[in-house]
Structures are given as structure tokens and as C-alpha cells.
């Protein structure tokens, strides 16, 4: 023990003997010693290090705050080939079953925007910087579809029309040929198709009784299989889907005017049921894809609409009367002419469809003009507009012809901020000039 003690004291003395101006030998212990807090702070303050750190943080956070805004304002020409909904919000692809719904007193569904699914699919930010969308319009070569396409192209979107030309005509969209934002595909919606799009307006279906009764089984197939295919597409690519249903879902209504909550009075085995029940089934499918698969959907119930580009001689009352009066033929009134209808000008309908697609509410929404006319009153307006000497011829009424039709549009007024602006007396002359041109052109008149 003594020896040990001795040795340590010798060592100690040796340490003391090292001159103070010489560097001490290497000792790892001295490196491990923690730097004291005041020294670290001192280090930060030296040579403006703190200032540089703060400036760095400021630049970084400014970039991350501004980046989303800049990308929204960026050139609209550049777009991903991946649907936007997939590239920006992966939740929409994975949480499809978590959507929740609220159904209000008038039977309209609205998706709950607080829930995780309620995605950004096809959502259009209000105001500047709206990104160009790619939109499919099925039945886009038809009467309503072609006006809708004009509106979408006019506001800068890309539009793909799918049409089998059963009642549609290339002439309705020929003015868009050559426009790089317009595509036309001859395709029957009964067959599936895969396209990358943000929105789907599903209009494909013959709309006039003459056409939908021509091949009733095909009409049902178009409504059921066509709607299934388009809903499947919407689900696959995360697009928003709008169905153009009809006031015919109310059948021969026992409630007047018709609200969206009314379930209708439809003959399921009648001549018109291929159309009426077809559209009712299309509505059912639309809601089932919404509830079950989380597809964003919208449902419009369209009431009688008229305007340029309607098929001549399609059996619809306005086009019938106008074409007959121009040709100096008697206007055919079925039944006693006291049944009522409401007539909406096509641009009002198109505005309503777009408001519905861009809005937050699923629907269904009645889109129609609540002004109500008997067939005889309509014939009077046509006479005033075209030919005061025009005559009327009466024929027996067709099966299941509804006695009255008038939309209650309070829901659309309130939730879509939409209502028709053009009265029958204002809209009819616009249609008449188009019909005159086409009837004068003999080929068109025959081949429409
Ligand atoms: N115009 C109205 O008054 C009215 C009223 C209620 C509902 N609607 C609905 O609005 C939509 C458009 O009606 P519209 O008046 O423009 O009719 P329309 O007959 O002029 O247009 C229908 C279009 O769909 C196309 N089409 C039909 N079957 C198809 C198929 N299997 N595959 C692909 N394309 C097909 C036709 O060729 C035509 O271009 C229809 O769904 C109709 O039921 C219209």
C-alpha cells in the first residue's frame, strides 16, 4: 500500500513539474467534457451565426407557404397524365368507404365536408387560378349536350364527347372540330371505356318519346349499363359524376308542383317505363355508388327543355309545334290540350347543370322553368312567334302522358343559387330561327 501511495505522489509531482507554456499531452477525457451552456450561447451569438439561422428558417417557411399558391397560378397548359385527384390526394383512393351523408328535409343529399373522404376530386377553387379540367360529356353531340360542351369549352376546359349518334349529330359540334381542347369519340356507353378525367356529365340517352320508344330494351340498357359504366369510370379515376335524370321519374304526378321529395307515380310496365324506370334505376345506381363506393355524384332532374339544335320531328311538343308552324302544317295537340308543361330554355339548363356540378350538394335537384303552360297556350305562343294563321289539329292522347308537370325549384334556388332567366316568349324566337334555317335546308330537314 505504502509503495502505491509513494508512486502516486511521485506522479503528482511530475505533473506539477510541466512548464505552464507547454501543451499538455493528449488526453481523450478533456474532449468529452460537455461545453457549458453560457459557452454555447456565446458561440451562437459570435459572428452573427444566430442571424444566419433565423434568415434560413424565414426563407424555408416562405417557400413552403407560397408553393401551393404558386402551383395553382402556374401555367394551365402543363398537366399530369395521372388524374389530378390521384396525384394530389391519395386519401380519395384509399378511404372510399368512409364518406358520410346528410339528407335534408327536401330529400337532397350533401356530402359532409369534414369527413376524410370528402375529397378534392374535381373541386374548383372559386376565384382566380382555376385549373383547366378534363371533362367527359356523354351524349355531347345531342341537343343539351352540345350546348353544355360549348359552355365548358368557352370557359377553358378540355372536353371529350362520347356519343353513338343515335339522336346526336356531328353538326351540333362541328364548329369545335380543330379546337385542341375538344375530342369526339364515337362510342356506345353500354360498353365500358377508360379515360382519365376530372368530371363526367352523363347525358347519353334518347330523350324524346319517339326515340326512346323506338328500341325500349336499348333505352333501358343505355340507362342501366351506360350509367354503370360511367359510374365505374368515375370510381376508377376519382372523377365527379353528374347524372341527367328527368322529371319523368315523377310519372303522372299526384303532387303539384313536384318537389324533389316526391317519389312519383310511375307505371312500371307502360310504354314509357323503359325511360322512366330506366332513369329511376340510374338514380338508384348513382346513389349506391355514392354511398357504397364514395363516388362524388350529382343528380339533376330536368324538366322540358327547348332551344336550337333540338331534333326536328322528335315528337317533343315544342319542336313539333315549331316545325309544323314553319312548314305551314297544323300543330298536333294530343288529347284536349289542357295538360300542362313547363318549358325551360337550354342555356338556363346548362347554367344549372354547371352550378350543380361545381356545387357541394348531391341532389337530386329539379332544373326547370316553373312557368306553366297548357298545350293550347303553348300553341298560341308559337302562333304569335311564327305564324298567326297557324291551325291546330287534335289527336288522341298517348299512353301514360302526364296531366301536369311543373317543377318546384326552391331547392335549386336556395342551394345552387340558380333559377331560369329566359321566358318562353324570349327563348322561342331563338329556337325558331335555328329551325327555320334547318328546315329551309332540305337535306338537313330530312336527315336530322
Ligand atoms: N331535353 C329535355 O327536355 C330533357 C328533359 C329531361 C331529361 N333530359 C335528359 O337530358 C339528356 C340529354 O337530352 P337531350 O334532350 O339532349 O337528348 P338528345 O337525344 O338530343 O341527346 C342524347 C344524346 O345521347 C346520345 N346517345 C344515346 N344513346 C347513347 C348511347 N347508348 N351511347 C352513347 N351515346 C348515346 C345520342 O346520340 C344523343 O347525342 C338525356 O339524358 C335526357 O334524358 C332531357
Automatic annotation (TrEMBL):
One of its GO terms (cellular component) is cytoplasm. It comes from Theobroma cacao (Cacao). Keywords: Decarboxylase, Golgi apparatus, Lyase, Membrane, NAD, Transmembrane, Transmembrane helix. It comes from the Eukaryota. Belongs to the NAD(P)-dependent epimerase/dehydratase family. UDP-glucuronic acid decarboxylase subfamily. It is a single-pass type II membrane protein. The keyword Transmembrane applies. Residues 1-34, 77-114 are annotated as: Disordered. Residues 137-429 form the NAD(P)-binding domain. It is found in: Golgi apparatus, Golgi stack membrane. One of its GO terms (molecular function) is NAD+ binding. This is UDP-glucuronate decarboxylase. Pathway: Nucleotide-sugar biosynthesis; UDP-alpha-D-xylose biosynthesis; UDP-alpha-D-xylose from UDP-alpha-D-glucuronate: step 1/1. One of its GO terms (biological process) is D-xylose metabolic process. Its cofactor is NAD(+). Its EC number is 4.1.1.35. The chain crosses the membrane at residues 50-70. Residues 1-10, 78-87, 103-113 have a biased composition (Polar residues). InterPro entries: NAD(P)-bd_dom, NAD(P)-bd_dom_sf, UXS-like. Pfam families: GDP_Man_Dehyd (PF16363). Residues 88-102 have a biased composition (Low complexity). Catalyzes the NAD-dependent decarboxylation of UDP-glucuronic acid to UDP-xylose. Necessary for the biosynthesis of the core tetrasaccharide in glycosaminoglycan biosynthesis.
